[in-house]
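Researcher: Here's the sequence for the chain we discussed earlier.
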Amino acid sequence: MKIKDYLLSVVVTLIVVTLSIIPIQEEAPMSDIPLIDKWVHILMYAGLAFIMWFDHVVRSGKTLSRKYILLMCLYPVALGGLMELVQMNFTTYRSGDWIDFEADVVGMVIGVLLSLLANKLWEEKISGHN
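Model: Thanks. This is the structure I predict for it:
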């Protein structure tokens, strides 16, 4: 597994980590949207899982194995849990929230399901079937 093959996944991970630990304004943009924080978590972790698929299959040309699907599930969940623990224990300006972690898990599930659908379409495309 070469890091250059997973560069987008690394970049998205760094973005998620940065967004998780930087201070945020009390009245952040779009804060009037109900549950905006949860939607952001869902989007970040769905995106991470999907980008992991994209790097693995499209950019690196590998096939999607059960082992890699498991990694696509476990890595975002572990990262989400770690970010909540970091917010709880190592920042004074953010607070860890287990409902945020649940939103991370929902995002991962959505991202993996989208990846499985995209993988099916990708395999059909490269095999020449409609």
